[in-house]
Amino acid sequence: MQISIDNLQKILEKSIHSSYAEARYQHRVRNEIVVGNGEVEEAKSTRIEGIGFRVLVNGAWGFSSTNTTISKTMIDTLDDAVKMAKISATAQKKKSRLAETKLSNGVFKPSINDPLEDHSLEEKMTLVTKTECDSRRYFDIIKAATCSYREIIDNKIIVTTDGAAAEIYYSKPEFRITSIAARNGERVSATETVGVTGGWRDLFEKRSAEEMSRKASETAKKILDARHPKGERSKVILDSGMVGLIAHEAIGHTVEADFVLSGSIVKDKIGEKIASNLVTLVDSGLSEIVRGAAGTILVDDEGVPASKTVVIKKGILESYLHNRETAAEFNVEPTGNARAFEYSDEPLIRMRNTYIEPGDYELDEMIQEIDHGYLLKGPRSGQADANGEFMFGAQEAFLIENGEVRELLKGVTVSGRALDVLQTVDALGKEFSYDIGAGYCGKKQLAKVDGGGPYLRCESLIGGMQ
Amino acid sequence: MKISENELVESCRLAVNTAIKKGADSAEAYSVSSVETEASIEQNDVKLGKFHQRSGIGIRVIKNGALGFSSVNMLSQEEINESIDASIKIASKGSYDQYNIFPNTKVPQKLSDIYDQEAHDFKPENSVKNAVKMLKTARRYDERVTVDSGVFNNSLNSIAVVNSNGVECVETTSNFTWYIMGMAIDGKEVSSFDFQFGGSHHLKDIAVEDTARNFAENVVKSLGSKKCQPFKGTLILSPHAVTELILPTLVNSVNSNNVQKGRSSFAGKMGNEIACNELTITDDATWSDGLSASSFDREGVPRKKLDIIDKGILKSYLYNTYTACRDKINSTGHASGDEESSPGVGSTNIIFKEGKSSFENILSEVKKGILVTRFSGNVNPVSGDFSGVVKGGHLIISGERIHPLSETLIAGNIFESLFEISDISKDREKVFNILAPYIRVEDISVTSG
Prior knowledge:
Helix content of chain B: 10-25%
Number of helices of chain B: 10
Helix content of chain A: 10-25%
Number of helices of chain A: 10
Number of domains of chain A: 2
Distance between the termini of chain B: 58 Å
Mean pLDDT of chain A: 94
Distance between the termini of chain A: 64 Å
Mean pLDDT of chain B: 95
Radius of gyration of chain A: 23 Å
Radius of gyration of chain B: 24 Å
Number of strands of chain B: 22
Low-confidence stretches of chain A: none
Strand content of chain B: 35-45%
Low-confidence stretches of chain B: none
Structural class of chain A: alpha+beta
Strand content of chain A: 35-45%
Largest sheet of chain A: 7 strands, mixed
Oligomer: heterodimer
């Protein structure tokens, strides 16, 4: 059965036992090609389709989902959600309620340069195969490589009993190349990635596949010969991807309003200075400054328009990230951060594109002012803790001595207390980019996010060999 | 209603037969059906009741020696046909690979202890009751404990595999799983997060209170954390930390696909000493207590117990049919994945052999070191280099816990550390699908301050 806004509205009319009900239909196609050492390791197409119903009964939430789009099954599934809400209500102490807000109506589709569907499977396989092969040819010391292309093509319909009726289309491709250098039993790897919301041309707008594979191989070759840095507290300059991670891990998670309610370190700190006054930190469903960020959403999964939220303005904490429920709790407007990865997931408060706004420094100036420190490039995975302690990895660490970049060292882990580290920010670069769009954030379920910023100088602890 | 085992097998047969009729040389179908109820906790309160039914089928075909794979989350004839067409199209664009074959193994012996009949009658109300019990246990342990989130989940999962070589198997598993996550808050101080989880196949083995108490104890103990001076010394890894720090690199390195593709440091080291002689690790999907127990793998190959490392000697890699064929041996039954991907290679239940010392003895012999409860960091599975933050850790001097640690990083190399293991405890803990001891490792760099 072809699902439409009208269908879902008619189904929700049956929900007479709930004070609020929402239906989210999703059709998702995921295509993936992985090539390793000249062999196709994965070439697949995955399709999912289904509907998730979430209802509020006596102030308690119930959720149920089905992969069947027959009216009777959908009504039964809605009834299951009501039944689950009634069971929850027997144990839940605090009644949930939703903030009133303007909800989205219409068709929403971020701009796309060169739709993915216009590029054949052969073309994509050829590119992945060639890129993987090329990356092993640049240097003899590169002994293995893996290249992958993944794309998610989504069609969602979100309808709520209080007025949301939105049809949404997303196209999110990503590309990744890893080169492995080896000598005398020692192996090191280096990875370059890109992920966007958009089309084929958007994916390779910043760098071609060839540039990425050459960079991965060059980095792996250099890291093999590099020594480990010494662990210490030091001045560091973070590249845009690392700034994206610090914005996401160190601050972003602590300002998710559900976590604030649990007792995050920024609880009751709205209006307080929590960072250097150079820092303006934003989480946005749109893709400001540079288009095509991977975490772009125009409407969230409660039907709220996903606009720009200034979290920290010139060092002052201005806003948390909200869904409709926490917005009601804090008596503010929802910020459009309710997101669900698939139809079978319930919406949770998640980030979108999280970044720090650029400043007025050239990178060279930032380096010249450092006597001893590190230029850290190439974000690796990160995590944040309840106490604001964060950690994330850098693929490359360049030693800075007396205002000049010296040797490349092996990658490091950067750590610190978020609010302490952000107070030490003393320079921001002019250039801006998003750089963590090939990754996902995990919080019960996945979310496609992005992050970025300019080069940022601060003080942090880096882990190394003593 | 959940789809029956017979219906699942029938959908797989249909898919395989149709794929052959449509021109595939060989075909395999893997289908799943599950039904689950879940109760979640947020901010010290019950948050959501959830009911979810899932089904799907993954179809793999070989045509002219090339592989194609496609999946769909519906089992109707029309959807299956569309998925078969997509698989054949992908295969027709692929290239010939002589090792692309499907297994023709015998029907595996069924594991008897991974399905509990009582799970059928488990009501959603009981999921909520268990979630509440977990929450209350944690909160009663100490008033400073705050539960950020938690879940109790009950599921019945059936899987079926059929291929055109005659493999045909089906199995149903009952699972009860739960987790709890949060921190302790004392005035303005917020502790480190802790995350504890558990699972069982049987109703009688649900132990949410034990999990909640461990969680609460960890977060309260991590209050009052301080930095320490940088040093090089000893680490004691908790069973949980063993699974986070050591295990991922070991599993990556014994994965035959990585070995064959030059992505493993264990390539060419079969039969070599790769760790201290106290370290013995087996992979055993037939261990029913482990949450990864099953009688056959993603390709329908029977599971078996496999020694990976025996007294420090590398004994076996993990193989699926493709990688085994490349090395001209039989699959070890380690094809991994679900219906949404073609089979990879993966571990199942991992069992570390117990050591001889008690945890207290291991601790008492430390001159200067750190007890690591959790590790949050990056491990490069190829080089083995690791660097990350100690979570819920304690500084140990002369065998005594001095204070909890904050802003403390550890760094080193896993492969080198395997030779620096100085003791393994006789006490082991089940961490979902892993049975791990405390492991003491020497000569690790600690950065703090």
